[in-house]
User: What shape does this take?
Amino acid sequence: MKRKPKVLVSACLLGIACRYDGGAKSVASLEALLERAELIPFCPEQLGGLPTPRMPSERRGARVFNREGADVTDAFERGSVQALKLAQLFGAEYALLKARSPSCGNLEIYDGSFSGRTIPGQGVAATALEEAGLALFNETQLDALYDALKGTDR
Assistant: This one.
């Protein structure tokens, strides 16, 4: 029997209403991913104890602040630890993450000014997952993820 690769997926991309605004960012084409991989949904911000909805947050250096200026780094770090535990528990080798998120952004994140500007960087959970050896992708990189999954059936 062939083993499907395991992919940790930001739950908001699967239509789960877990974003800061109480919404989701569904990517309809992810249904095709189910044919190629086992998906493990997660939301590191919820895993870290933050409510939904919640105040928007952005990363400034190693810290994360909400729009009112409160330092919420501890919750983001707790969530990244729990996300890593999920990845290890299920043997995930890949992660499909929400672009630009202070938790999940894998290539760029918002710059911390709440102005909509982005800078190169990673979210807190993305950093932990990459350091643990997972290959990271975001919803704009689905073709690259599909290419990485080719030939992984074992």
About this structure: The beta strands are 6-10, 38-42, 57-60, 63-66, 94-97, 108-110, 118-120, 135-138. The two ends are 8 Å apart (CA to CA). The CA atoms of residues 91 and 119 lie 31 Å apart. The mean pLDDT is 95.
